[in-house]
Amino acid sequence: MKHTKSEQAAIEANQYIVGGVNSPSRSYKGVGGGTPITMAYGDGCYLYDVDGNKYIDYLAAFGPIITGFNHPHIVAAIKKAAETGVLYGTPTAYENKFAKMLTDAIPSMDKVRFTNSGTEAVMTTVRVARAYTNRDLIVKFSGAYHGHFDLVLVEAGSGPSTLGASDSAGVTNSTAQEVITVPFNQVAPFQAVMEKWGSKVAGVLVEPIIGNFGMVPPEPGFLEAINEIAHAHGALVIYDEVITNFRFRYGAAQDMLGVIPDLTAFGKSIGGGLPIGAYGGPKHIMDTVAPLGPAYQAGTMAGNPLSMQAGIACLEVLQEPGIYERMADFARQLKDALLEAGETNGIPTVVNQIGGSLTVYFSDHPIKEYEDAKNTDSEMFGRFFHLMLEEGINLAPSKFEAWFLTIMHTQQDIDETIAVIHRVFEKLAQ
Ligand SMILES: Cc1ncc(COP(=O)(O)O)c(C=O)c1O
Ligand SMILES: NCC(=O)CCC(=O)O
Fold first, then answer.
1. Which structural domain, as residue segments, surrounds residue 83?
2. Quick check: CB of 25 below 6 Å from ligand 2?
3. For a FRET experiment, which of 47, 147, 335, 350 has its CA 20 to 30 Å from that of 400?
C-alpha cells in the first residue's frame, strides 16, 4: 500500500491543526506512532483514502456509523434538510418527531433534550443531578470515558489513557475533588465510598456496558447493586449510553440489561453520523431544566434540522428486522477467528464481544476492570493495528477502543477480515 498522499496531507495538517487531528483519538500515538491515514470518502462499510486504497472499516467513526457511511435513506433525509434550511433557531416538527421516537424506544425517559455532542449530554446530566439533589459530588468508574468536560477528565479511559494521561492538565484541583473514582465491576469499593460520602453524592455516572477500556460487560448483579446503594443514599444514577444506545438493540442498553437509571445521556448512533447528543429521564427530574426549572442548558445548534432529520432516518433504518442479530453474528465470527488465530500462533488473546461490537486484548487474563485493560500488551496491539491497516482493515488506533459492525458489512467482508486476521497473527508470532 502506498501512502504518499496521506503523508503529504499529514504534513499540511500538522502545520495548521494541533497534532494534525481534530480529536486526539485519531492520532496513532497509542499504536507506536505512524501517520494517520487521510480518508477521501466512505461507501457502505468501506473507506477509501486519498491514495486510492480501500479499507473494510470497523472504526465506524468511533461508533456513530452503525448504518454505514452513506445509507440512501439517511442521505435523502440530509439532502432534504439541506434544501429546506439547515438552522432556524425556532422549534421544528422534526424535534418533536425525533423526541417521540426516542421516548417511545426508551421507557425510562418521559422527556428529552437534544445537544450537539455526547460530551454536552453527559455534562448536563451531571448538572441536572446536582440541581435536583442539591448536592455536589459525583462518583464515576475508573477508565470510563464520559467526554471532555473538566469533571470527567479524571482517571478517564479511551483517548486520555491511550495518550498515557488519564488526567488532563487544565482541570483544577477543586474540580478534581468533586469526583470520586472507583473500579468498575466491584461493589465493595463503591459501597465504601457511598458509606463515607453518600449524603453529599448527587449522581453516580455509569457506562452500563463499558466502551472505553474496550467493551466490558457488567458482572451479574453489579449494576443492580450500584442502583440500590446509590438510591439508598439519595443519589441519582446516570447512565452514559453514548456508545451503547441503539448499538445492541433498537433502544437503550438499560432495557437489555434490565436495570433502569434516573437519567441517561445519549449520542453517537442516534444521529446517523451527524453531530448529536441527547439526555433524558422522568418528567419530575427533567423539569429541573430551564426554562421550566433552575438548571440551565442551551445550544444555538441544539436540535438542528439536519441532525434531527438524519437521526429520524437513522432510527427508521435501525427498525429493520434482523439487523442486530446479523451484526452480533458477524462480531461473534470475528471473535472466534481472533481467538483461534491467537491459539494457533501462541499469542495470548482475549476478546470481549457484546452484540455487534468487540475488543481484542493481548492478554492472558480476563478484562473486567480498567487495571485489567491497562495491563495488556500495548506493543503487540500497536503491531497488530498497523499490520491490519496494511492489509486494508481500518480499526481504532487504540487498545482501549472497540470494533463496531455496521448494517452494511456482508459475510464476504467478514470472510476477508478473518483471512487477514490469520495472516496478521502469523506475522505477529514471527
Ligand atoms: C461513553 C461516552 N460518553 C461520552 C462520549 C463523548 O461524546 P462526544 O465525543 O460526542 O462528545 C463518548 C465518546 O466520545 C463516550 O464513549
Ligand atoms: N470511545 C471514545 C471515543 O469515541 C472518542 C472519540 C473522540 O473523542 O474522537
1. 72-318
2. yes
3. 47
